[in-house]
Amino acid sequence: MNKLLYQNQILKGNSIEILKKIPDNSFDLIFADPPYNLQLDKNLERPDNSKVAAVNDNWDKFSSFKLYDDFTKDWLSECRRVLKKNGTIWVIGTYHNIFRVGKIIQDLNYWILNDVIWNKKNPMPNFKGTRFTNAHETLIWAAKETKSKYTFNYNSLKCFNDDKQLRSDWNLAICSGGERCKKDGEKAHNTQKPEALLYRIILSTTNKGDLILDPFFGTGTTGAVAKKLGRNYCGIEKEKKYIEVATKRIAKIRSISDDYLKTIVKKRNETRIPFGMLVESGIIEPGLSLYDYKKRYTAKVMADGSIDCKNITGSIHKVGAELEGAPSCNGWSYWHFNIEGKLQPIDYLRQKIRSKSNL
Questions:
Q1: DSSP E strands: which ranges in the chain?
Q2: Which of 227, 221, 236, 206 lies closest to 87, judged by CA?
Q3: Model confidence over 9-22: pLDDT tens digits?
Q4: Which is it for strands 342-345 and 298-301: parallel, antiparallel or unpaired?
Q5: Which tens digits make up the pLDDT trace of 114-173?
Q6: Which of 181, 186, 253, 343 is the most exposed place for a label (fewest CB within 10 A)?
Q7: Is the pTM of this model over 0.90?
């Protein structure tokens, strides 16, 4: 199957059968919301005897655990095949299925990175009072293999969370109100996920332009959020009614401008550029004057990439540290150069050479 035939497309049919037609190593990320196998054998009712709109669709019914396990192994095997070497997969489930799914994920040699708890701010109560209110679902995040160099936008997520590491328990409301897709006045899908959940997943584990697969597409939450965040999607869905809802929904989504999709790059992921490289490339000429921000000190650049200030000669870091009487100094932000009467940190020139060289 040609890549263009499934990029930003919804493919109608059985997930496993369609997956078998897709080439190896096609997707950067997979988000899967498979059938829960709730094993409901009767209607759920409120205390006033009114019926609860539970998940009782035919697609969620399996006659035995073995059939469910075989189904799970089949789709997870195909997903691993079509996942890129450095790709990851997210699978969401409830206590009915997530433990069975987790075992099979490990049996297939995925490498589990995290389990994430989605704490529902507004869960459905346990009407009969016979159990705890089921107020969460579990997500498993796994890499294709142990050596996968997977995407995790750590710095962006830390900024997103007010400069604190984002924890593995996420407090988000369930899908309701205006966000809930409707068809003929009724909710279109019983297990529609909130866009906030997919926003966090896609923002944290993909980059702009990546291709995301959802093998159980439903009403298209994955596609809607992928489009909004400048990613590409491929959905697989066998129910015509869901495809119609998803198609109309995604068509209304406006993508965020590329100018606002930049993620914060880990410093250690940037290619190291020594100060001497700026000298040898001609971006900085020997003899150039460098200044600290308050212009207390003036240093001269030497041909070998060292600088000299007040008879102290050495690297931009060493000289800055000695002048300040500090154990260390980031010379890239300490030293500035004069450009059109304004001081700019020399890191501006380092970023310039990175940009020109596509490093």
A1: 9-12, 27-32, 83-93, 111-120, 136-143, 169-172, 182-183, 186-187, 211-214, 232-237, 289-291, 298-301, 307-309, 312-314, 336-339, 342-345
A2: 206
A3: 999 999 999 999 99
A4: unpaired
A5: 999 999 988 878 767 788 988 999 999 999 999 999 999 999 998 889 889 999 999 998
A6: 186
A7: no
